[in-house]
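Sequence in, structure out. Go.
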Amino acid sequence: MNKIILATLLIAAASAGMARAEEDQNCTQAAKDKWLSEDAIKDKAKAAGLDVRRVKVEGSCYEVYAVDAKGAKVEALFNPETGALVGHESE
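Output:
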Protein backbone atom coordinates (compact mmCIF):
# COMPACT_ATOMS: atom_id res chain seq x y z
CA MET A 1 0.00 0.00 0.00
CA ASN A 2 2.80 2.42 0.92
CA LYS A 3 4.56 1.68 -2.38
CA ILE A 4 1.41 2.60 -4.34
CA ILE A 5 1.05 5.87 -2.45
CA LEU A 6 4.74 6.69 -2.94
CA ALA A 7 4.57 5.90 -6.67
CA THR A 8 1.47 8.08 -7.04
CA LEU A 9 3.15 10.98 -5.24
CA LEU A 10 6.29 10.68 -7.39
CA ILE A 11 4.25 10.69 -10.60
CA ALA A 12 2.26 13.71 -9.44
CA ALA A 13 5.41 15.61 -8.48
CA ALA A 14 7.08 14.84 -11.81
CA SER A 15 3.99 15.95 -13.75
CA ALA A 16 3.77 19.19 -11.79
CA GLY A 17 7.47 19.82 -12.41
CA MET A 18 7.08 19.44 -16.17
CA ALA A 19 4.06 21.74 -16.26
CA ARG A 20 5.89 24.32 -14.13
CA ALA A 21 8.96 24.21 -16.39
CA GLU A 22 6.74 24.86 -19.40
CA GLU A 23 5.09 27.83 -17.68
CA ASP A 24 8.49 29.31 -16.83
CA GLN A 25 9.75 29.07 -20.42
CA ASN A 26 10.54 32.55 -21.69
CA CYS A 27 10.72 32.47 -25.48
CA THR A 28 10.87 36.19 -26.22
CA GLN A 29 10.67 39.67 -24.78
CA ALA A 30 9.27 41.08 -28.04
CA ALA A 31 5.88 42.78 -28.13
CA LYS A 32 3.09 40.65 -29.62
CA ASP A 33 2.88 42.90 -32.68
CA LYS A 34 6.40 41.64 -33.58
CA TRP A 35 5.38 37.97 -33.36
CA LEU A 36 4.98 35.70 -36.36
CA SER A 37 1.43 34.64 -37.18
CA GLU A 38 0.07 31.28 -36.07
CA ASP A 39 0.09 30.20 -39.73
CA ALA A 40 3.81 31.02 -39.97
CA ILE A 41 4.47 28.93 -36.84
CA LYS A 42 2.44 26.06 -38.34
CA ASP A 43 4.68 26.26 -41.43
CA LYS A 44 7.82 26.18 -39.24
CA ALA A 45 6.46 23.15 -37.35
CA LYS A 46 5.61 21.37 -40.61
CA ALA A 47 9.12 22.09 -41.89
CA ALA A 48 10.41 20.42 -38.70
CA GLY A 49 8.46 17.27 -39.65
CA LEU A 50 5.43 17.76 -37.41
CA ASP A 51 1.80 17.18 -38.35
CA VAL A 52 0.21 20.14 -36.55
CA ARG A 53 -3.07 19.63 -34.70
CA ARG A 54 -3.31 22.88 -32.69
CA VAL A 55 -1.35 26.06 -31.95
CA LYS A 56 -1.85 28.23 -28.87
CA VAL A 57 -0.04 30.96 -26.98
CA GLU A 58 1.56 29.76 -23.74
CA GLY A 59 3.22 32.63 -21.87
CA SER A 60 5.70 34.18 -24.29
CA CYS A 61 5.80 31.09 -26.55
CA TYR A 62 3.74 29.42 -29.20
CA GLU A 63 2.86 25.90 -28.08
CA VAL A 64 2.25 23.50 -30.94
CA TYR A 65 0.39 20.24 -30.41
CA ALA A 66 1.39 17.84 -33.18
CA VAL A 67 2.25 14.30 -34.21
CA ASP A 68 5.80 13.48 -35.29
CA ALA A 69 6.90 11.20 -38.14
CA LYS A 70 6.86 8.17 -35.80
CA GLY A 71 3.25 8.83 -34.78
CA ALA A 72 4.09 10.12 -31.29
CA LYS A 73 2.19 13.07 -29.85
CA VAL A 74 4.43 16.11 -29.39
CA GLU A 75 4.06 19.40 -27.55
CA ALA A 76 6.62 21.79 -29.05
CA LEU A 77 7.47 25.32 -27.96
CA PHE A 78 8.43 27.89 -30.58
CA ASN A 79 9.90 31.36 -30.23
CA PRO A 80 7.11 33.55 -31.64
CA GLU A 81 9.52 36.20 -32.91
CA THR A 82 11.97 33.95 -34.77
CA GLY A 83 10.00 30.74 -35.23
CA ALA A 84 12.84 28.73 -33.68
CA LEU A 85 12.00 25.48 -31.87
CA VAL A 86 12.96 26.05 -28.22
CA GLY A 87 11.73 22.86 -26.59
CA HIS A 88 9.47 19.86 -26.92
CA GLU A 89 7.95 16.98 -25.06
CA SER A 90 6.85 13.70 -26.68
CA GLU A 91 4.62 10.91 -25.44
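Check: The chain has two helices and four strands. Confidence is low (pLDDT under 50) at residues 5-10, 12-22.
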